[in-house]
Amino acid sequence: MFRLDELVARLGGELIGDPAVRVGRIATLDTGGEGDLAFLANRKYASRLKDCRASAVILAPDARESTVLPRIVTADPYVYFARVAQLFNPPVLPPAGLHPGATVMADVPPSVSIAPGAVVEAGALIGEGAVIGPGCHVGRDAHIGAHSVLHANVSIYHGCRIGARCILHAGVVIGADGFGFARERDGRWVKIPQTGRVLVGDDVEIGANTTIDRGALDDTVIGEGAKLDNQIQIAHNVRIGAHTAIAGCVGIAGSTVIGARCMIGGQAGIIGHLSIADDVVVSAGTLVTKSIARAGVYTASLPVQSHPEWVRNFAHLRHLDAMADRIRALEQRLDKADPAE
Amino acid sequence: MFRLDELVARLGGELIGDPAVRVGRIATLDTGGEGDLAFLANRKYASRLKDCRASAVILAPDARESTVLPRIVTADPYVYFARVAQLFNPPVLPPAGLHPGATVMADVPPSVSIAPGAVVEAGALIGEGAVIGPGCHVGRDAHIGAHSVLHANVSIYHGCRIGARCILHAGVVIGADGFGFARERDGRWVKIPQTGRVLVGDDVEIGANTTIDRGALDDTVIGEGAKLDNQIQIAHNVRIGAHTAIAGCVGIAGSTVIGARCMIGGQAGIIGHLSIADDVVVSAGTLVTKSIARAGVYTASLPVQSHPEWVRNFAHLRHLDAMADRIRALEQRLDKADPAE
Amino acid sequence: MFRLDELVARLGGELIGDPAVRVGRIATLDTGGEGDLAFLANRKYASRLKDCRASAVILAPDARESTVLPRIVTADPYVYFARVAQLFNPPVLPPAGLHPGATVMADVPPSVSIAPGAVVEAGALIGEGAVIGPGCHVGRDAHIGAHSVLHANVSIYHGCRIGARCILHAGVVIGADGFGFARERDGRWVKIPQTGRVLVGDDVEIGANTTIDRGALDDTVIGEGAKLDNQIQIAHNVRIGAHTAIAGCVGIAGSTVIGARCMIGGQAGIIGHLSIADDVVVSAGTLVTKSIARAGVYTASLPVQSHPEWVRNFAHLRHLDAMADRIRALEQRLDKADPAE
Lengths: 341, 341, 341
Prior knowledge:
3 copies of one chain form a homotrimer.
Chain A: E1 2-3, H1 4-11, E2 14-16, E3 22-23, E4 25-27, E5 36-39, E6 56-59, E7 71-73, H2 77-88, E8 97-98, E9 103-104, E10 113-114, E11 119-120, E12 125-126, E13 131-132, E14 137-138, E15 143-144, E16 149-150, E17 155-156, E18 161-162, E19 167-168, E20 173-174, E21 181-183, E22 189-191, E23 198-200, E24 205-206, E25 211-212, E26 220-222, E27 227-228, E28 233-234, E29 239-240, E30 245-246, E31 251-252, E32 257-258, E33 263-264, E34 269-270, E35 275-276, E36 280-282, E37 287-288, E38 296-299, E39 305-306, H3 307-314, H4 320-337
Parallel strand pairs in A: 4-5, 5-6, 6-7, 8-10, 9-11, 10-13, 11-14, 12-15, 13-16, 14-17, 15-18, 16-19, 17-20, 18-23, 19-24, 20-25, 23-26, 24-27, 25-28, 26-29, 27-30, 28-31, 29-32, 30-33, 31-34, 32-35, 33-36, 34-37, 36-38
Antiparallel strand pairs in A: 1-3, 2-7, 21-22
């Protein structure tokens, strides 16, 4: 439990009301009770303040007088909520040290935790306080930055570098070979060795079973602060800018460069060799087939219909060109019939 | 090998013909031979009965006289076939006991099988007869129900609960952090601790490399009897109803609620915060962007075309609004020309 | 470092210039320097030859006189580049032998390398020189062909067969149960045992976290030389022809048969029970819902638009049938007005 004045001393904000009130859990305006700190991040829920039973509330300056509850006023209540939630729910990390069931062929600092079943190859560098989960493999000469956490069964191929304070969820694969082959005349494929690395910046989070391939000649690069959800596929030589967030199931093909602070919706796809500007938002399910030079929101998806409606409407998609011709023909006939128009 | 009268005694159905006939394998009408039990699940294949060489056949009441072979008559031959196939092919489970290569920090019943390389953390509860495969990680305080089977390299995060008789295929990840961040004004992301759990009901099957994230505050819930195929991504706080089946590569975004007995086709996507009614069918590849309030089949996908046809037709998709305007203009011109129409 | 005459002796091609020149790295025309071998695979970059500082160049017969640098002339410079790159970058394999941290219940040849944390079940057959990475599971009676490499945390279910010289990247799952259930009248699912296997031919590469399900009765088959990228899902009883290449995130539903030398673009989907001819190319993001009988390129995807344009244009997709009706009505009105047309 934290006193409100402690919270403000640590995290900033203006405190209104009894500084000795103690809170220890985050809650919504509806569910909060004794000991809970609720938050109003969106003005449209302000009416819920009047029935709120939480011990205190986080809110924005324009809502400061909307309640008589003890409150913390801050420019961005949602970010403040996130910081308080971190304070209330610190990560539970395993104890430092190498479990006897781990196989560690490199020198690691005593502050590192390596779980049973993990394998760390020769030449790997593991930063202070890093956590290597059960069943993880850290390949030869790979680097794991200080205080980064690898959950269970993460695979880091040789030579790849993970920054500091990263979180890699279970099943992540970093540095598998990019999909690079030369094609012989008879259709057989000749493998092109993938000799680049994957470089992951500081403060990156990577979701469960996401895969990031190593570069062919140059490196694949994930900028600092980027957040990747689950089951994303990042191909060789892709570069992703700082603080870009990518939702689940997205695929990004080879050599595409994505700017900083972009947001890519779930199941979106971006084909290879494109350039996407900073601050671009791609909607869920959208396949991007051309470079995007300017910030903005971009979309390509279909409206869902009941199956019979879809059958009726979408049959015409095969004949759009003919429809356009028929419209043009109608215009010409009318023009001829009435040239004055 | 089973006698036909044994099968009927165990699984029901009406037996016509020699009860002493013995069968031990399932086969199709075309491939069945001596010792095989074939089945007719779809009337349109009834003509194949006349050349069928299987020792016996499962069929529906309306086909009872379509063959002279020994036969089991049942209301639903396909379900009957599935039950017989289970009888003929019981799962081969590893022996009970803890392999010395496993790391088990919890008390587990002697009937449990834990493979080498598996790690079970303190506080975990493992039900009678459960199987924990090689390389699996069962986090602290996680529960695995009786007779559930975790294949190789499954990761269960702390506190998550798996029901009884579940099957989790290799590479499944249950309970990784949901994708939750607050955004600062400069675009940096602040992680929101994900303090909910994943609750998986009884008799759920989860395919290889599928991921189900833990809830942010509340739990993510998979209803009993649900069947999930491979490489599905279920985001935080999703709730999936009982007996819903989801095909491979589907993504379901955060907080969406899906009803009971739904069927979601492969590569479909459902965006966040939606509500999908019971008994809804979503076709393969369909992106659902609005809640669906009534049972039925829903579709949104494009017809495949040869590339040149696609180029010709789909250029017009950028100009549908202009096409609609031109049709309206034509109608107005004609109305003016012929006001009597 | 290799002398140019050594390269030509091993890999063929015509050498023009000093045979004693030594090269040891592959580079592009722009970045190559002393000791580098550059390549011109596409005539449109020929102008870059004049500033190229590499020690030698690989090029096609029609470019043989485009530079005075030492050069290797070959019919297909890109394939030649791939072979030289393989020579310059031989795979670094772990030493042969069974690590004490591995659990091996089968007899394996001394040339095999098995890493810590790997589990090889009874009855498994491992070919000469094969590499089983850390955390891999090779199920009972599974076969791994000679010189195949399983990277970390690969799961091979019982009875599946992997050919010779295959590469399976981290997190691959081969032989999990196909998604097969019979549905009871009340919506419950009854599991159909999946008793087929997965058969993977020689020289197949399978990308990280790709999953290939075992067949229901018959086998799932991946033809020799096929190349599969990351996060692909192949359902039960699919058959994929030799030398077919499939990009990341593709899903192929049950029982579909794909020909030889096909190329399937990223995030494409192919529904079940289809037949795709040899030499078919499917564009990225395309959902294939009908069989394809002839070689060619097939596409179905939407043009990306800025979000406001998309809203304006795509609203009409729900009303295409009505638009078609209105065009027909206009044509009839004009025909009536001017029957001579």
